[in-house]
Every structure is written in C-alpha cells, then in structure tokens.
C-alpha cells in the first residue's frame, strides 16, 4: 500500500520567554497508508492537537521530516500546500 502520510523523528518545541522551551512532540515516527483508519489518543497536553496540526500542514515541526504522498512538505510550493489543506 502507498504511504499517504509519514513522519520521521518529528519534534515540535515552543519557546516561553527567553529561557524556557516546552517540547510538545519528541521524536515522533508515524506512517499512515492508504485505506488505513487511525485514532490519535492520549491525555490532555500530550501533543495530539500539535500532531494533527503538523499532519494537516497547518504547522511545521521544529525538527524532523513530514511527507505527504512521498513528497517532503518543506519542498512543496505554497499553491500545492493550499490545495492539500482544502
């Protein structure tokens, strides 16, 4: 089956002030293939929404690789990203 979404070593951090950094995601690896159903579950504050924002191309990871249909999201033109979001 074709991989629709793949994440490799994805990390997302947020800065709070100058000295504090909060890690929302750390080293996430995920592959979702065509036809699969996936549930993202976890306690409040575990990074579910952050992960969904990255998968939905609404946010970018601090580190790591996100691919949609085999294409690196960072290399896609803005027009294509807009199409994928819709």
TrEMBL record:
One of its GO terms (cellular component) is plasma membrane. Transmembrane segments: none annotated. Keywords: ATP-binding, Nucleotide-binding. GO terms for molecular function: ATP binding; ATP hydrolysis activity; transmembrane transporter activity. InterPro entries: ABC_transporter-like_ATP-bd (IPR003439), ABC_transpr_LolD-like (IPR015854), P-loop_NTPase (IPR027417). Residues 25-78 form the ABC transporter domain. Signal peptide: none annotated. It holds the Pfam family ABC_tran. This is Macrolide export ATP-binding/permease protein MacB.
